[in-house]
Design a protein that fits this description.
single chain, 667 residues, alpha+beta, Immunoglobulin-like, six-stranded antiparallel beta sheet, 20 helices, 20 strands, 46% helix, disordered N terminus
Length: 667
């Protein structure tokens, strides 16, 4: 009776305050492959605005989705790993890694093989974490039941699913399932995916223009256009042939992107993009490409291949024009190869049709000048003459490839946590690379294939000043400056020899306060923080300050955003240092409680086994909320001094909220 009353009160609180969330509903289905092989499917229906994280996330990121299949005694065996939908991917600047997530719906499948005949159900557990734009819920565990179809039933994809909703098992008919599936078809592609493909297209298009301005491609424009205009019987025929030539270039490069997508597949390349060995190999490749651009050697395809293709170009007609385009791709490989290679790997790591979209953008930029100059041959007179400036473009691309290479080396170092390429070392490398590029543009250093430089053009001087300014901008990063312009490229601030940058970006007041109180440690922004509720409250009573309860999580993205973007503000940091005692309670702390401290929650009915469970239960029971970040300012009797606050990136509002709590404590 007591538990029932508590549950009713909790439900009323939820309806009143709207802070309790349960945005994911799980359902299960089973497909029969053979007498002994089945496919288990777990579907998550995700409330609009929320997202569920994928299974394969590097350590140090958000909590991934994880399945545990209960198999005692062993009556079946798992075949391969649990697979998942394509989902969405983004490079998270807070965790500095690629993170996969799902919106609206996610389906996970696991193939099994029976080793025993007497199986009717398979029990499993799924651990998962969900976030929206302002909240993250603590990691949750849901029990699943996969009902194995009997021989009398149709063991197929249309098997009646078992759906678990609010701890009640209900059966849904096939007709209901089909109706649900039909309504789940979206009318338009996801904005995130479209934006990602558009970004890839634009970057590939700009890369195509960069490749166009190299010594291997640029001189081909007047030669090719003149060939078509002279060999064609009429001006219209010349324009048509040049258009076909440009279209053939697009087909060749798009075909290359299609082959990469078909052979390797989006999922495998995406998995490789976070692999240590992949990042190391690609680092070496980019260094080789950079050396080639800088003039150490040339990367060329076998001359026999070029000769065979060139001979086919003499056949005339559409086939001859196509082989002329192929000959251009082969001959210019020493300049375009490194750019195409970089684009393909970067695009492939995004998954889906990104390699095709990337090659489409690149090839359009290459083909466009040939078509336009064929239509308007008089424009050729306005083209600058080939010369040393083309090699300058190639050298600049070499420096950029070299700088990009160290990003891949940094990825490998971060995954392995070797601390060989920490933030200061990475920035020192970039400062050296871009500093040398600035010296090169100003004519202070020359490379093997450079022409004599009697004077510097205005364009080269302007670009040199931009590079020099960027180099100077990087220098304060060695002393802790955040460098927001290149956020996501260097290692994060905490992955550093001195995270405080000689006292510039960190909490300098700690250098004065001396030793830490018992049970305290340095938290975000080096604020003195407690992870134990009782010890923090005892210290607050001792020093006579109010307490800021920070319900947070190690894998909470928005918690990190608040700590790095809001808590770093001098006004906010001053309050957190001087006016309150911070107690950070991590709801995803996996350390188990001693047996005598484990209990069953009065509010949720779940067993509280870990420290994170304990703090999550405290938040739900006391504040009727289960999302993070969640901040409460309390006095020494745990009474609220102001209304709780959630994720709020507005610095002024958050500062006013802190001040309000402190002032109420002093009254």
């Amino acid at each position: 009776m007591r538990n029932t009353i508590i549950a009713i009160l909790l439900l009323f609180s939820v309806s009143m305050f709207g802070q309790m969330y349960n945005p994911v509903k799980w359902s299960t289905t089973v497909e029969k492959i053979s007498d002994k092989e089945y496919i288990l499917k777990a579907q998550a229906v995700i409330q609009s605005g929320w997202h569920l994280y994928g299974q394969y996330i590097e350590e140090g990121g958000p909590s991934p989705t994880a399945f545990t299949f209960k198999n005692q005694p062993k009556k079946f065996e798992l075949i391969g790993k649990t697979s998942e939908d394509k989902g969405h991917e983004t490079v998270d600047k807070i965790f500095d890694m690629k993170i996969k997530y799902f919106e609206d719906k996610a389906v996970f499948t696991q193939k099994i093989k029976f080793t025993s005949a007497d199986i009717s159900n398979i029990a499993a557990e799924v651990d998962f974490m969900v976030c929206d734009d302002s909240n993250c819920l603590p990691p949750s565990t849901e029990e699943l039941t996969f009902k194995i179809p009997s021989e009398k039933k149709l063991a197929s994809a249309e098997e009646t699913p078992i759906v678990k909703e609010d701890s009640v098992i209900t059966e849904k008919t096939v007709a209901e399932k089909q109706e649900k599936n039909s309504t789940e078809i979206t009318d338009s592609p996801k904005k995130t995916e479209s934006r990602g493909l558009l970004t890839i297209f634009i970057l590939a298009f700009l890369s195509g223009f960069a490749a166009l301005l190299t010594p291997c491609v640029f001189p081909m424009i007047p030669m090719t256009v003149s060939f078509f205009t002279k060999q064609s019987k009429s001006k219209a025929a010349g324009i048509r042939n040049a258009m076909i030539y440009g279209f053939s270039i697009v087909i060749i490069y798009v075909l290359l992107g299609s082959i990469v997508t078909a052979v390797f597949g989006a999922d495998s390349l995406n998995a490789l993009s976070t692999n240590v060995w992949f990042n190391l190999i690609f680092f070496i490749l980019l260094v080789v490409f950079a050396c080639s651009f800088l003039g150490a050697f040339e990367i060329v395809l076998p001359s026999s291949l070029a000769n065979k293709v060139d001979s086919q170009a003499d056949r005339g007609g559409l086939i001859g024009i196509f082989f002329m385009a192929l000959a251009l791709a082969i001959v210019s490989f020493s300049c375009t190869g490194p750019i195409v290679g970089t684009l393909l790997v970067e695009a492939a790591s995004k998954g889906g049709i990104a390699p095709i979209v990337g090659m489409l953008g690149f090839s359009i930029a290459i083909a466009l000048p040939f078509s336009l100059f064929a239509a308007f041959p008089g424009w050729l007179n306005a083209l600058p003459k080939s010369g040393g400036w083309l090699n300058t473009v190639k050298v600049v691309l070499g420096f950029l490839e070299l700088a990009l290479a160290f990003k891949f080396l940094s990825n490998a170092d971060l995954v392995l946590q070797l601390h060989w390429l920490e933030r200061e070392v990475f920035l020192a490398v970039w400062i050296s690379v871009f500093g040398m590029l600035a010296f090169y543009l100003f004519g202070k250093i020359t490379l093997p294939h450079d022409s004599p430089l009697n004077h510097i053009s205005v364009g080269r001087l302007g670009f040199g000043l931009i590079v020099l300014s960027f180099t100077i901008y990087l220098i304060p990063g060695l002393w802790g400056a955040p460098l927001k312009l290149i956020s996501g490229f260097p290692p994060p601030m905490h992955y550093s020899e001195s995270p405080n940058g000689l006292g510039v970006s960190g909490n300098s007041e700690l250098k004065i306060t001396g030793s830490l109180p018992e049970g305290a440690e340095h938290g975000p922004q080096n604020i003195i923080t407690f992870h134990d509720y009782n010890k923090g409250m005892e210290y607050a009573k001792k020093v006579g300050k109010p307490v800021l309860l920070d319900f947070t999580g190690y894998a909470c993205v928005n918690c990190r955003k608040m700590e790095e973007l809001v808590w770093s503000d001098p006004k906010v940091l001053g309050v957190l240092n001087n006016d309150v005692i911070l107690i950070s309670l991590y709801v995803d702390d996996k350390k188990e409680l001693p047996e005598n401290e484990q209990y069953v929650s009065e509010t949720t009915g779940k067993k509280i086994k870990t420290i994170g469970n304990k703090w999550s239960d405290l938040q739900i029971k006391t504040y009727k909320a289960n999302a993070q970040p969640f901040y409460v300012i309390v006095d020494h009797k745990s009474a609220n001094l102001t209304e709780p606050s959630a994720y709020n990136p507005n610095i002024e509002e958050y500062y006013s909220w802190l001040q309000s709590g402190v002032q109420n404590f002093k009254k």
